[in-house]
Amino acid sequence: MALNIKKIILKRVNMTLKNPFKTSFGTVQDKDFFIIEIHDNTGEIGFGESVAFSSPWYTEETTETTLHVMRDFLIPLLKTNPISHPNDVPEIFKVIRGNNMAKAALETAIWDLYAKQLKLPLYKLIGGTQVNIDAGVSLGIEEDTSQLINKIKHHVNLGVKRVKIKIKKNHDIDVIKKVRSVFPLLPLMVDANSAYSLKDIEHLKKFDDYNLLMIEQPLGHNDISEHAVLQKELKTPLCLDESIYSLEDVKLAHKLGSCQVINLKLGRVGGLTEAIKIHDYCLMHNIDLWCGGMLEAGIGRAHNIALSSLPGFNLPGDTGASRDYWYKDIIIPEITLVNGQIKQSNHFGIGYKINQKHLNHYLIDEIPFKNFK
Ligand code: OSB
Ligand code: MG
Questions:
Q1: Atom of ligand 1 at shortest distance to CA of 28?
Q2: Which neighbouring-strand residues pair with 261?
Q3: How many CA atoms lie within 13 A of 190 on its CB side?
């Protein structure tokens, strides 16, 4: 059976986060991105979301490069190559180097479409077993740590299972110390977004005193080998985010001992097919795994929730409720927490409908593609 793609529409949307999100590299408040609609010959629609930001501070991709690569390279490949299973898509996209976020935006939409054609929830199609997933929260840098502590209190009251705080040079130990003094037993971790180098090794060793779950991406955004040097000096587990683009990267990190935990993001690894391969490898090798976030709107969030149902996701991720990010999300129902957990939808595909009224409110452009083989 082929998927019979008839039409693709890229819907460019502008959404403003409730709160600016500050990291060691910069601040995000406005998200300019794409909702991808892939229509089949029966009128069924698969949805995807592009996760790149307007500027290339996290990885090299941006909203504009995503558009360029989807429009000029990836969608033309989909026009001429019939697909019988979503697993075929990375194979078809292989002739285009990199640009994983652009690839994932289309590939995840194809998975949603395929699950809908089979009349299955996406999480069931991929063999997910976790019907309730633990929510975590990632909190940006606050110059005033009492503000951060208030935010942590809010999320702890909502039942989140772990808290991640962003740190940067000269804004780390002091913050961790204050947070720990208020929340001695909280499952707490830090994310440096590559703020340090091996020169900081003595400083980073001090982090071992605060019973952190892990330190996420302390060193270079594309480094795997120096993290192995650092991990040998630290008791606290390291987690890789930015450096992981593929299963090959995970294998290398595992072999070198660069980390004990993987943060998996659909966009960064090019979609669900590669994400499942990484999940299977982590499960087989007892590598701790959780699902990261990219400040997604509802469609991307729903894809993260489905992915997190796989049995190897043994730690709470970054995915939380819609209302913690947006005044109004673009899906129905919005994503909510119950006792710090998110329940899988049993509707077909990603399990959420588009809120057309809200989507139209945010819509700034619509680019259609027709004439598929
Ligand atoms: O490093 O994990 C990161 C947000 C944007 C870019 C990179 C990161 C993050 C987050 C927040 O930490 C994730 C989320 O809440 O969606
Ligand atoms: Mg990170």
A1: 5
A2: 239, 288
A3: 28
Is 265 tagged catalytic? yes
Q: What is the CA radius of gyration of the chain?
A: 20
Instruction: Give the C-alpha separation, 37 to 105, whole Å.
Output: 10
What is the tens place of the pLDDT at every residue in 197-255?
Answer: 999 999 999 999 999 999 999 999 999 999 999 999 999 999 999 999 999 999 999 99
Q: In what order do the strands lie in the sheet with 261-264?
A: 136-139, 162-166, 188-191, 215-216, 238-240, 261-264, 288-291
Report pTM: 0.97
- Kindly give the number of the ligand 1 atom that is closest to the alpha carbon of 265: 2
Is 235 exposed, middle or buried, given 0-12, 13-18 or 19+ CB atoms closer than 10 A?
exposed
Whether 191 is in the pocket of ligand 1, judged by its Cβ within 6 Å, is yes
Are 244 and 269 in contact, with CB atoms under 8 Å apart? yes
Q: Which of 103, 124, 164, 265 is catalytic?
A: 265
Q: What separation in Å is there between the alpha carbon of 58 and the centre of ligand 1?
A: 9
Atom 5 of ligand 1, nearest CA residue:
294
Which atom of ligand 1 lies nearest, measured to the CA of 296?
16
In sequence order, which ranges of 137-221 are alpha helices (DSSP H)?
145-157, 173-182, 201-205
For 362, the token pair is 């945010």
| All structural domains of the chain | 5-120+353-364 (3.30.390.10), 124-343 (3.20.20.120)
- pLDDT higher than 80, residue 1: no
Q: Reduced to 3 states, what is the DSSP secondary structure of residue 86? A: coil
Residue 37 backbone dihedrals phi, psi, to 5 degrees: -115, 125
Strands 5-22 and 27-40: antiparallel
